[in-house]
Each structure stands twice: as structure tokens, then as C-alpha cells.
Write a structure and sequence with these properties.
Structural class of chain C: mainly alpha
Oligomer: heterotrimer
Helix content of chain A: 40-55%
Helix content of chain C: 55-70%
Largest sheet of chain A: 11 strands, mixed
Number of strands of chain A: 22
Structural class of chain A: alpha+beta
Order of helices and strands of chain C: HEHHEEHHHHH
Number of domains of chain C: 2
Shape of chain C: elongated
Largest sheet of chain C: 3 strands, antiparallel
Strand content of chain C: 5-15%
Pfam families (chain C): PadR
Strand order of the largest sheet of chain C: 1-3-2
Radius of gyration of chain C: 19 Å
Strand content of chain A: 5-15%
Largest interface: A-B, 23 and 32 residues
Number of domains of chain A: 4
Number of helices of chain C: 8
Distance between the termini of chain C: 24 Å
Shape of chain A: elongated
Protein name (chain C): PadR family transcriptional regulator
Distance between the termini of chain A: 44 Å
Chains: A alpha+beta (about 800), B alpha/beta (about 230), C mainly alpha (about 170)
Number of strands of chain C: 3
């Protein structure tokens, strides 16, 4: 029924005539194992405790992972509850004015790299709709803030933000109105906000239809991340079950001496493992519950979580509860196959049994084949996640299986070298399996991370618009809908006066049409009229010489069709019409006949503007109805907090002004959060693996206490032994990293091919390999103090 | 009161582990090429005496002089260097590095002194031959018998051409035949190379290979030197 | 083993009758071989002749001779010299050594020094035998080994006795 029953008992073991058989024997032996694990003296307890803590850590992570679906659901639900309710008639439609309707403007801003959400709101009636978590509608110049924002504003760090959000705090937003405890959000009241200022009227909050469905590519990424993070956890648990295995084997040998047979010893070992695993489950549960309490106070890479959101799904919890002890028993039984426990000692069969290569290669290759054969993921089709997850798991687990063989094959070819190197390689040659087991966890984590990074880079243009913006010409862009006769000039002036600002390009833009009546099916020729000073116009088009009062017709580059379209409206010497909206009478303006025709150039935003351009001497921008003001701002980036000064100025000019910083790449928020999740997970996984490596390293040092003392007696330098410890960790980790990088690149390329994309960057593995190197150093450094301690002569005294 | 012509001597050594005194006024001296047995019941402090003499443990009080240098005045690094270049060690068990072959084990102290691997291993093979275990050179300690292993250990102690060999119950884990052969080989090689041997043992037949014996009882030495 | 020295040693603690001497000897040393009366009197007459004991007094009355013996100064010196001199290491020495240890304890001399001297003597012989063995042929080796093993057994006994001197002193004194 299991592995061990198929295994033939050696001829030496005489058949036992009496005693319980079958299930009863199983229970008796398991029980004995549990008793040994629980009452095996100090040694036994240390072993059980190590296993239990190791398994516990793994279980805590698994439970956290099992909470992710619920977490995402809850967060998304709260997020949807606070968006405005949709009004029929398209995305831009506004609600009707009523007693409950609210006029509001989004004042989202960025502060020290974190995004701060905020709304300026004005109630239309006496019973305005309240956003979730807000008890009272804020009065004018008052605001209700999230606890995290309150803390930030109260701290010295929030000084500049306070200028931008100058409202009096009169309340806090309850958790039900926040996605995460770290949310920076405020709702401020106003008694002056109008539609003309860009205000948007809403009737209620909450979007019952739920948010946008995740794009398939994101689903693929999330599946991959789960695999990448959970496989190492599984490997870690398997490693933890083996903690102290050598000692256990010696104890079992003593049991053999008093008459247990081989099957019984295996069952006893299984019982011990079971006890450790069950204890680990309990510890894991406690760790999870305790950690859950702290989680609300922790923020890593701008990710924070409400403890109440961390509820593992019942099915997944049950799966963890059953599979962890089962895996512990299976791993123990498998590990004991290579060991023969004789009454007088333990014989390791490990060396006689050569690791076979082919079946280890089979798995990753099969995984790649699955990935390559499965259908391409269409951008908006529903994804079948199973082949992706299956293929990725096969590749990653296959890599973990390939590693021990590879480590053995490589290490056996190493000889010679200085003494520390010789000590390390010889040690690895004699028993590389313990090292490769822990390292295989790293391999999976790094390979997965490399593949994911590649995938991120490749699918980047889905999420990362390559903006074409040129940050060397301007670093900020503002946009304001506030219609104010002096907006254009005042905006430019104020920005120019802001600390750290070196240059401002400001333009006022309005749409102009060719006057006349047009049939319904024809499009009225339209183009834009851009007003700015000569300096601004020079940034937008190749105008050559310019004096105030000049006007230009600007054609796009290399686009005859569009140039003709522009010319249909911008007829030199003829009038154009400017529609002020709201049913008012259109305004007319004549394009001077002496206007020159010039070609557009990329502005610092990376965009081309064309149409009619006029200097402020030719058109008074304050007379243009319905115009928008845009500025592009260049700053001296050496001025500290220059971005915050710019944003503060913007907020002062117009609370609804949008400020964007120009970067070559703009990141999609959802994509960014997925990547952050990967970073958090990979860090935790690597730390976990470092812990596993450390435990086996310390265990090994403890076993060699006497030998270390002898070497010290010989006059061996501490550095010699330290180096040998370093090499002993470094060699398998480096081999593991090579496998991981190769496998990760392969897996990444396969996944990218699945998505029908091209590999954009082959060098993304460098940071992960750096993390691997840091791990080697960490494990070595932490092993050094115990090593020094064990290098004392006490070990020479006969126990 | 250092006896004239002595290579290594100690006087008035005191050493306690916690509250338990291990040495309580022990003295010792050995001449070049001399084999001195340190005897005494278990727990009497003889191993501690050896550890102090070898500079592995620093005594709480007392002086240890090696070739005119005061051991307690040396730094840890200096004492390590001294042990590497001037001393050799044989212990009862668990002293060979299990993953190195026997030749590599013997070559280890020579290499620690900075000799090249090839040369060190050539010397190591020569000593394997001297100790009549030339056929175990390529084997690992786990694959050889206790007697062979102990000869490898003796070879290792002698290979770096030390001035003093410290042997702590070198035959403790061997049967009498193997033990005697190891003692014969050790003392012969030491005498012919003029190496002093500090031999800690509780066995009279092993001590009989010495030139002189010192008894330790309750941390105090009784040097009943007999003009043999 | 020297009965003369032993009887002398017993007299050191005070004058005794011949009958008492025999009883004390049997009790302390003659576990399996009680002393004959004849042996006592012949020994005592030899010691009298050598001036190591003297007659302290004679009790009247019937029965066998009831002479009381006392040790002389010469006798005490003789006992001391005997105890101080190590025995030639040879097989089956224990009874002599045991007697010497007990007498040393009885007479307030250092039993520990006695044992140490004996140990050194044993080791000296063992060194000689080991040396001979190393140089000799197989026959020599076997013969020497035989002797060595016996000497080793003696040495172990010496060590064990040394470790139990306190208890022995208490028992002898009782």
C-alpha cells in the first residue's frame, strides 16, 4: 500500500511470528515514533522542535497564500464600493443634480513616491451621498482622512504635503472605506467647486458590477507567481522534515539493537515525522494568527493588508492540514530508502546509488513541451490556466530534481585547490544531497523569478506604455480644465516662481472649426488653436524666427493626409470658429494671411501638436472660451523635494490640476502591484531558504564539533575553516543559480512565446543572482559565530 | 625552575573549568627526543595538562616555556602558528577529516604550513610507508580499520616534522596488538627524528614505551623520576 | 612475604602475647592460610635472637607459654626499611604488597608513597621488558608479553588500591 511495503526486507531480518500485524502494527509503531519524538530527551526534542518550527514557518506561508483569494476579493469589493456609481450614458456622463448628488473633483497626487488619493467635494443638497467609511460629509475646508494619511500629515515627513492638503482634519475614514491600512486617502469639502472648475457630479457610490476583469496576461503572471513562491515553500517543508535525520537514524539503530525490524523502524520514523509535522501545523497556525495581528502595522514596498482580510479559504486550509503531514511521512520514508539502519549503526547507501540523469531531465523538458504546445494566449480571450500552471510547475520542479544530480556531477570533477576549497569540495563529494536539497529551493525561486521578470519585461508594453516622453526637456506636466481668463499666464508665472523650477512651457489650447453648415454624415473640419509665447511655440514646432504677434500653421511631420486636414480649417486670411459650449454664441477669429506654414516637432511630452499656433500678441489667451491650460515644467533635480514644490504650486493654482511626472515608462498600477507582490514573496522565500540552509549548516557543524577542535589543535587558522564553510555553501548555491538562470531563461522564453511576444531583455536575472550571492554571504556570516564557538578546545575533552 | 636542556616545561599550572579545578599546581618538563608518559586516573587532569602544554588551552596561572619562549605571552594566532609548525597531535578517535582521503589527511598539516599540495602529498605517502599503511592512501577514513586509521593519524602528526608530538590516549580505541604496533612505530619514529613525545595514557603497557613517566592526581603532578 | 616483618609490624602498636599475635595476623592477613603456632614461636625466637623484639613479661598460670613480646628500637627501624623498599616486581606479589600497605596504615607510615614507589619500580621493569621485546625475536616477545601482562595487572591493582586507601585505612583502623 505504500513505498515501504514494496521494498523487500533484507534476508537477515527473520520473520516475526507474533505481535500485532497490519494496521494495528502501523498504529503501534507510529505511536512509538510519536512517543520518541515527544519524549526522546533533549536531543529528540531539539530535532522535533527544529522540524516543527521549520514546518510551522512553511505552513504559515501556505496559510497566507491560501488567504490571497479572499484578500483580493475583499480588497476589490471595498475598492468597488467607493467608486462612483455608474450613470447610464457612457463613461463621462454626469449624474443629475439632486438632494443627494455631489460635485467632486479628483485630487489624486503623488507624495514622496507614494500615491495620495483625494477628492474635493461639494454637496448639491442637504443629504449628500457619503463614501464608504465616512460618517459625516466634510464641511468647507474640512476633510476626513485615512489613518495612514493622518499619521503622515502629523509627522515632519508630511510637511510639504500639508501645504498641498491644507484642510482641517475633522474625521477619519473607517476601515470599510479603505483597501488597505496603508491607504493614503482624504475627502475634503468645498463650497466653491463648480463644474467649470472641472467638477464632476455623482449620485452615489459603489459599482455593483465589480471591477474590470483581470487581463489574461495578468492571470498567467499570478499563476506563475504562486507556483514560484509555493514550490520553494514545499521544498522547505520537505527539508525541515529531514532536520536532524542523522541523529534520528542513530537512535533508530539503537532500537534495532533491542529487536525492532526494518519495517518497524521506518514506521517509527514516520511516526516521528508525523508528530513533528502536526506540531508544525499547530505552530504554523499560531504563527499565522499572531503574524496576522501584526500585519496591519507592517508595510513592505507600499503593500499593507488589513488583518481581517487574511482569512484562508476553508478548502485550501484543509488541503494544507492534510497534505503537510502526509508529505512529511512520505518524505521521511523516501529518505530512509537510501539508509540501511543496522543494529550496530547506520549504513548510508547514498554513495552506491548513482543518481540517474534521464528521468530528472524528463520533467523540465516535458514542462517546456506543454508550454510550447499549448495555445497562444489571446490578449482578451479567457485563459485556460491549467496548461500554463502545469507546464511551469513541471519545469520548476524538474529543475529542483535536476539539481542534486548536477551538483553531484560537478562536485565530483573538482579536486585540488587550496585547503579550504579542498575541505569544502571533498565534503560535498561525500554528501552533497543535504546541500542540494536546500539549494533546490533557491533554484526554483530564482528560476521562477527570472522567468517572471522576463515575462514582465516582455509584456511590459501592455502595461508600461513606452511614453516617448523626454525627461531631459521637462520633468513635469500639468493639465487644468479650470476655465479662467488669466489661467494661462498666471499658471506659467506661478510655476516659474516655484523653488527649483528652471523653465516652464505653458500653452493654452482650444479647438477651432471651419465655420459653416455641414450635413449630418460629414465631419466639420476641426483643428486646434494653441497660444503661447515664442519660447513655448519653439518647443512645439520648427518655427524659425518668431516675434510676438506672429501666427503659424503647423503641419504634422511626414503626414500629408493630416496636413491637408489641418489646411481645411486653417485657411490663411479666413475665419475660424471657437465653440464656447453651453449653447453660447461661437466666437470667430481670423487667421492672418501672412501666417507661415511650419512643421511640428516632438514636445517634451513626446507628443506632436499641430493646427494653428499663435503668439500671445496675436491672440489673447484669456479671451478664449473652453480652453485648457497645459504646462511642461523643467526643474533642477538636485533641489530636494522639488517634485513636492511643483505639486504644491499646482494645488494652489487649481485644486483640480493634474500633475504628472514625465518618465520614459509609465507603469500601470495593477501591473505594478503584481510586481511588488513578486518582490515581497521572493524575499520571504529566499529568507526561508536561508533559514533552512543555516539549520543544516549548524547541524553539520555540531556533528563535527570534535573534528573542529582537532583541527584547531593542529593550528588550523579560523579563516581556513571560515572559507571552507563559505565554499561549502557557495558551490552548490552557485551551481543552483546557474541552473536557475538557464532554466528561468528557458521558461521565460517559452512563456513569452506563448503570449506571442518577443524577449526584450535577457539580462534580468542579474538582480536575482545578486540576491543569491547575498544569501551565501548571509548563511556563512551567521554560521561563523557558532563555528568560532565550536572551535574551542572543549570538543577535545572526552564526553 | 626550568630543568636545564628542556625543550618544553611548565611550572605551577592552575586551570579550572568553571568551579571544577582541572590542574592545581602541575609541573612538567621534557627534553628533545624524550618520550614522557603522563599517567593518572581519569579526571585527574592529564588531558588538561596536555592541552595547556600544547597551547590549546591557556592556564589560569603558571608558566609554560617552549624553546625559551613563554607560551602564555603569545597571542592566539602565534600559538596556532606554533602548533602548525612545531607540534604534532594524535588523539584517541575522531581526528581524521572523514571526507579527505588518508593521504590528504596526512598532507593537511603540511599544507597548513604553506607547502604546495603535490609536495605535501609526496611527503604524506612517504610517511604512509613508514607506518606500514601505504595501501590505504586513496581510501577515506571511514573505509579503513581502526588500527590503520590510527597509523594514519600518527603519520599525520609526524609528517610536518614537528619538535613535539602530543598523543592523548593514542591507543585507547585499539586492541593490544594494534595498540602496541602503533606505539612502537610512534616512539621509534620520534626517537629517530629526535622528536619529543608527550604521551597521555592510563595504560601501563603503553606508558612502558616511554622513557619516563609523570603521574597526575587531583590536578597535581608527581614526577618520580627514576634514573633508569 | 615476610612473616617476621609482619609480626614485627603488628608489635609496633604495643606488646602482645604470642597467641594475640597469631590472632591479629590471621584476622588481618591470613584470610585463607592461618598461621601455625609453631611458625609464630619459631619466628619470634629468631627475632629475639636478632634483638628486634624483647620479652615484655610472662604471665603465670597453666596452659602453654604465656610470654608477652615487645618490639625494640632496632625492630622498628627494620620494619620501616622493609616497607620503604619496593618489592621486586614479580607475579603474585599482591599478598606481600597488601600486607605492606596495611602495615603502613597501621603504623602511621605513608601508604601512598609506598604504592608510588612500587608503581615506579613496576614501570621501570616494564620499560626494560618492552625494550627487550622490541629488540628480540618472537620467543622473546611472547615471554616478555607474558611478564608484561602480569606486571600490568599488578600495576592496576596498585592504582586501584591507591584510589581506595581512605576506605582501607578506615577498615584497618576499626
Amino acid at each position: 500500500m505504500t513505498l515501504l511495503d514494496r521494498k523487500k526486507a533484507p534476508a537477515a531480518a527473520p520473520p516475526r511470528p507474533a505481535g500485532p500485524t497490519g494496521v494495528a502494527a502501523w498504529f503501534r509503531d507510529l505511536g512509538l515514533g510519536i512517543r520518541l519524538a515527544a519524549g526522546g530527551g533533549r536531543e529528540g526534542w531539539i530535532r522535533t522542535a527544529l522540524t516543527a518550527v521549520g514546518v510551522g514557518l512553511g505552513v504559515a506561508l501556505l496559510l497566507t497564500a491560501a488567504s490571497v483569494p479572499h484578500l483580493l476579493e475583499e480588497r476589490s469589493a471595498r475598492d468597488q464600493a467607493r467608486v462612483e456609481s455608474r450613470v447610464p450614458g457612457g463613461p463621462d456622463a454626469q449624474a443629475k443634480k439632486s438632494d443627494t448628488s455631489v460635485l467632486r473633483i479628483n485630487r489624486e497626487t503623488e507624495y514622496h513616491g507614494r500615491s495620495v488619493s483625494g477628492y474635493l467635494m461639494r454637496a448639491d443638497g442637504t443629504h449628500p451621498a457619503l463614501p464608504p467609511g465616512v460618517a459625516r460629509f466634510p464641511g468647507a475646508d474640512e476633510m476626513t482622512v485615512s489613518p495612514a494619511l493622518k499619521k503622515l500629515l502629523d509627522s515632519p515627513e508630511g510637511r510639504l504635503l500639508k501645504e498641498r492638503v491644507p484642510y482641517r482634519i475633522t474625521g477619519t475614514i473607517a476601515d470599510s472605506g479603505l483597501v488597505s491600512p496603508g491607504d493614503l486617502l482624504y475627502y475634503a469639502g468645498s463650497d466653491t467647486l463648480t463644474s467649470a472648475d472641472g467638477g464632476h457630479r455623482i449620485a452615489a457610490y459603489g459599482n455593483p458590477e465589480g471591477g474590470k476583469e483581470m487581463p489574461p496576461i495578468l492571470i498567467v503572471l499570478i499563476i506563475m507567481i504562486c507556483v514560484v513562491l509555493l514550490v520553494p515553500v514545499a521544498i522547505f517543508i520537505a527539508t525541515a522534515v529531514r532536520f536532524g535525520g542523522d541523529r534520528r537514524d542513530r537512535r533508530l539503530a539503537a532500537l534495532r539493537l533491542v529487536g525492532t525490524d526494518i519495517r518497524m523502524t521506518r514506521r517509527i520514523a514516520a511516526g516521528e515525522a508525523l508528530f513533528g509535522a502536526v506540531l508544525g501545523l499547530l505552530i504554523g497556525g499560531v504563527l499565522f494568527l499572531v503574524g496576522r495581528g501584526f500585519v496591519g502595522r507592517i508595510e513592505v514596498w507600499n503593500v499593507s493588508v488589513f488583518p481581517s482580510d487574511l482569512v484562508p479559504s476553508a478548502a485550501l486550509t484543509a488541503l494544507v492540514a492534510v497534505s503537510v503531514p502526509a508529505a512529511a511521512v512520505l518524505v521521511t520514508l523516501a529518505a530512509m530508502r537510501s539508509v540501511v539502519i543496522e543494529p550496530l549503526g547506520v549504513v548510508r547507501g547514498g554513495r552506491g546509488r548513482r543518481r540517474r540523469f534521464w528521468w530528472r531531465l524528463l520533467m523540465p523538458v516535458a514542462g517546456l513541451v506543454v508550454l510550447l504546445l499549448s495555445d497562444k494566449v489571446e490578449p482578451y480571450a479567457t485563459v485556460n490556466p491549467y496548461p500554463i500552471a502545469g507546464g511551469a510547475v513541471l519545469v520548476l520542479v524538474g529543475l529542483a530534481l535536476l539539481l542534486p544530480w548536477l551538483v553531484e556531477a560537478c562536485v565530483n570533477r573538482l579536486h585540488g585547490g587550496p585547503v579550504p576549497w579542498q575541505l569544502a569540495t571533498r565534503r560535498l563529494q561525500l554528501s552533497s544531497s543535504a546541500a542540494s536539497r536546500a539549494v533546490s529551493g533557491i533554484t526554483v525561486a530564482v528560476a521562477g523569478a527570472v522567468a517572471l521578470q522576463m515575462l514582465f519585461a516582455a509584456v511590459g508594453d501592455e502595461f508600461n506604455r513606452l511614453t516617448g516622453q523626454d525627461p531631459s526637456r521637462a520633468q513635469f506636466y500639468t493639465f487644468s480644465e479650470k476655465v479662467d481668463p488669466e489661467a494661462a499666464t498666471r499658471t506659467i508665472q506661478e510655476f516659474k516662481a516655484t523653488k527649483g523650477v528652471t523653465a516652464v512651457i505653458g500653452k493654452v489650447e482650444v479647438y477651432v472649426t471651419r465655420p459653416g453648415k455641414y450635413p449630418e454624415d460629414a465631419v466639420q473640419p476641426t483643428t486646434s488653436l494653441i497660444v503661447g509665447d515664442c519660447g513655448t511655440l519653439r518647443e512645439l514646432a520648427r518655427i524659425g524666427s518668431c516675434t510676438d504677434g506672429d501666427t503659424f500653421v503647423v503641419h504634422p511631420r511626414n503626414d500629408k493626409e493630416m496636413s491637408d486636414w489641418v489646411d481645411q480649417t486653417a485657411r490663411k486670411g479666413k475665419e475660424v470658429e471657437i465653440d464656447p459650449g453651453a449653447g453660447r454664441k461661437p466666437m470667430r477669429w481670423t487667421l492672418p494671411a501672412d501666417s507661415r506654414t511650419v512643421v511640428a516637432r516632438h514636445d517634451p511630452l513626446g507628443e506632436d501638436s499641430w493646427g494653428i499656433m499663435a503668439t500671445t500678441g496675436a491672440v489673447d489667451p484669456s479671451k478664449l472660451p473652453g480652453a485648457t491650460t497645459q504646462t511642461q515644467i523643467r526643474v533642477d533635480e538636485s533641489v530636494e523635494d522639488v517634485a513636492e514644490y511643483v505639486r504644491n504650486t499646482a494645488a494652489r493654482i487649481d485644486p483640480g490640476m493634474r500633475v504628472a511626472s514625465l518618465k520614459s515608462v509609465a507603469r500601470d498600477e495593477k501591473y505594478a502591484s503584481v510586481q511588488r507582490g513578486l518582490q515581497v514573496g521572493a524575499t520571504m522565500t529566499l529568507l526561508l531558504i536561508a533559514a533552512a540552509m543555516l539549520v543544516s549548516q549548524l547541524e553539520q557543524l555540531r556533528e563535527r564539533k570534535r573534528l573542529l577542535s582537532v583541527l584547531v589543535a593542529f593550528g588550523t587558522r579560523r579563516s581556513t575553516l571560515a572559507w571552507s564553510v563559505l565554499w561549502q555553501t557557495a558551490v552548490p548555491v552557485l551551481i543552483g543559480l546557474v541552473v536557475a538562470v538557464a532554466g528561468g531563461l528557458g521558461l521565460g522564453a517559452a512563456l513569452i512565446a506563448m503570449l506571442d511576444k518577443k524577449v526584450t531583455d535577457w539580462w534580468l536575472f542579474l538582480p536575482m543572482t545578486g540576491a543569491g550571492a547575498a544569501l551565501i554571504l548571509l548563511v556563512t556570516l551567521v554560521s561563523l559565530p557558532p563555528l568560532w564557538r565550536m572551535m574551542r578546545p572543549d570538543g577535545l575533552r572526552t564526553e | 625552575m626550568i630543568p636545564a636542556g628542556s625543550l618544553l616545561s611548565a611550572d605551577g599550572l592552575h586551570k579550572a573549568y568553571g568551579r571544577t579545578p582541572a590542574l592545581d599546581g602541575a609541573s612538567f618538563s621534557i627534553h628533545p627526543g624524550e618520550v614522557v608518559a603522563v599517567m593518572g586516573p581519569s579526571g585527574s587532569g592529564k588531558s588538561t595538562l596536555l592541552h595547556c602544554l600544547a597551547g590549546i588551552v591557556t592556564p589560569d596561572r603558571g608558566t609554560i616555556t617552549y624553546a625559551g619562549r613563554e607560551l602564555s605571552a603569545m597571542s592566539d594566532a602565534e600559538r596556532s602558528a606554533l602548533r602548525r609548525s612545531e607540534f604534532g597531535f594524535v588523539f584517541q578517535f575522531g581526528q581524521l577529516v572523514p571526507e579527505l582521503t588518508c593521504v590528504e589527511n596526512i598532507a593537511l598539516p603540511i599544507r597548513l604550513n604553506g607547502t604546495k599540495r603535490k609536495d605535501a602529498e609526496r611527503t604524506a605517502r612517504h610517511w604512509l610507508e613508514r607506518l606500514e599503511v601505504e595501501d590505504v592512501g586513496a581510501k577515506r577514513p571511514g573505509e579503513v580499520s581502526g588500527g590503520q586509521g590510527q597509523r594514519v593519524a600518527v603519520a599525520r602528526a609526524l609528517a610536518a616534522s614537528p619538535k613535539v608530538i602530543f598523543a592523548d590516549e593514542p591507543t585507547g580505541a585499539l586492541d593490544s596488538l594494534n595498540g602496541e604496533r602503533v606505539m612502537e612505530l610512534l616512539t621509534e619514529a620520534a626517537r629517530s627524528a629526535n622528536v619529543a613525545v608527550v604521551l597521555v595514557t592510563h595504560e601501563a603497557r603503553v606508558a612502558a614505551y616511554s622513557d619516563r613517566d609523570v603521574t597526575v592526581r587531583d590536578g597535581r603532578t608527581r614526577d618520580l623520576e627514576h634514573t633508569a | 612475604m615476610s612473616i617476621g616483618h609482619t609480626l614485627l609490624g603488628l608489635l609496633e602498636s604495643g606488646p602482645r602475647h604470642g597467641y594475640d599475635l597469631k590472632r591479629a595476623f590471621d584476622e588481618k592477613f591470613g584470610h585463607d592460610r592461618p598461621l601455625h603456632y609453631g611458625q609464630v614461636y619459631s619466628t619470634m625466637s629468631r627475632l629475639l635472637k636478632n634483638g628486634l623484639v624483647e620479652v615484655d613479661g610472662v604471665e603465670s598460670g597453666g596452659g602453654p607459654e604465656r610470654k608477652r613480646y615487645a618490639i625494640t628500637e632496632a625492630g622498628i627501624t627494620d620494619v620501616g626499611a622493609w616497607l620503604a623498599q619496593p618489592e621486586k616486581p614479580e607475579p603474585y606479589l599482591q599478598s606481600t604488597l597488601y600486607t605492606k600497605v596495611v602495615l603502613a596504615l597501621l603504623t602511621g607510615r605513608s601508604a601512598e608513597a609506598l604504592l608510588d614507589t612500587q608503581r615506579t619500580e613496576h614501570l621501570r621493569l616494564m620499560r626494560i621488558l618492552t625494550d627487550r621485546k622490541r629488540k628480540g625475536d618472537l620467543a622473546d616477545q611472547l615471554i616478555c608479553d607474558h611478564a608484561l601482562f602480569h606486571l600490568e595487572a599488578d600495576l592496576r591493582w596498585l592504582e586501584l588500591t591507591a584510589a581506595r586507601l581512605d576506605r582501607l585505612a578506615a577498615e584497618v583502623g576499626a
